Amino acid sequence: MSGTDASLTASLPASLTISVVICVYTEDRWEDILAAVSSVRAQSHPARETLLVVDHNEALRDRLLKEYKETRDVRVLANAGPRGLSAGRNTGIAASRGEVIAFLDDDAVAERDWLRHFAEGYADPAVVAVGGRTVPIWASGRRPDWFPEEFDWVVGCTYRGLPPGRVRVRNVLGGNASFRREAFDAAGGFATGIGRDGDKRPLGCEETELCIRLSRARPDAVLLIDDRAVIHHRVPEVREHFGYFRTRAYAEGLSKALVARSVGADKGLESERRYATRVLPAGVVRGLRDAVLARPGGAGRAGAIVAGVLTAAGGYVVGSVRARRGGATFSVAPVEGGAHG
Predict the structure, then answer these.
(1) Neighbours of 48 (CB within 10 A)
(2) Which residues does residue 187 pair with via DSSP β-bridges, in sequence order?
(3) Closest among 212, 198, 222 to 127, alpha carbons compared
């Protein structure tokens, strides 16, 4: 969640090949999926291929195969592992042919220069991962007055507190990220048992765990976020309500407990400590100030930040107890296959 400026001014490696993986699971997002694929196909730095990985939904897979049967640069695959986002991503990595594998959410669209900005980061051979900035598209047309920008991660978007520009970070955010293929050779794939599984509880943090594991396997590795690599992410109406906010914050706590168990609390919560001790208190003060100035939602935002912290902390405690008792497990497997050129 934090970093220092990275001065990378090398020229764009125009020949860098990038595969884009989009994991999909429901026909309810049909139009979103088509829009996501179209945004990839319109990139100024063309993707080598787009891989649609379908999570154990034969009807959706058949429909996508028909939709893209004449499209050579789009491939439709079945998730070869257990149900869930991590296994779907691992399936895409194994089948991909690019030197870099990028990930895009199925309900997001990428701006035209998204992959170009990713490619620029890889001009430095030390860089093994590049992420971008994710902007919310609210179903209601505007941010709810009570919803604090510090908690935009709840809806899968870039949140207040992340440093601007192109900066070095501990981890990238999974819905808008890319990795060199060698990253998976060094650290293995995404851990199953942490991330999302269709419509079940909205867990996360699989990309955090992977990035920390990658940094341990390659201590010289550089991970970046470039806020010019922008995608726009749909936020459905149900996620604009406080009930979802609270559920997602609790799930984040559960997930962070698994990450801490995997990589240790020092690394697993390193960035979160700064976020909790600096960014969130400043957000509460800002909200209370807005309330005093009679600005809409100020008190609500301050209250939501406090509630979000307490709820996530509760999830972390419960997750830690479960992990110690062996009630929550996950596994990391090497990613087989994949060839670039």
Answers:
(1) 18
(2) none
(3) 222
Ramachandran region, residue 290 (left: φ > 0; alpha: ψ -120 to 50; beta: rest)? alpha
- DSSP-derived letter for residue 11 is P
**Tokens 């090497």 belong to residue:** 334
pLDDT digits (tens, 9 = 90+) for 284-305: 999 999 999 999 999 999 999 9
Query: What single letter denotes the amino acid at residue 190?
Result: F
| CB-based contact 198:26 (threshold 8 Å) | yes
- 56-78 per-position pLDDT tens digit: 999 999 999 999 999 999 999 99
Burial annotation 124-143 (CB, 10 A radius, 16+ → b, else e): beebbbbbbbbebebeeeeb
Which residues have a Cβ under 8 Å from the Cβ of 4 and sit 6 or more positions away?
167, 168
Write down how long the chain is: 341
How far is residue 96's CA from residue 102's CA, in Å, rounded to a whole number?
A: 10
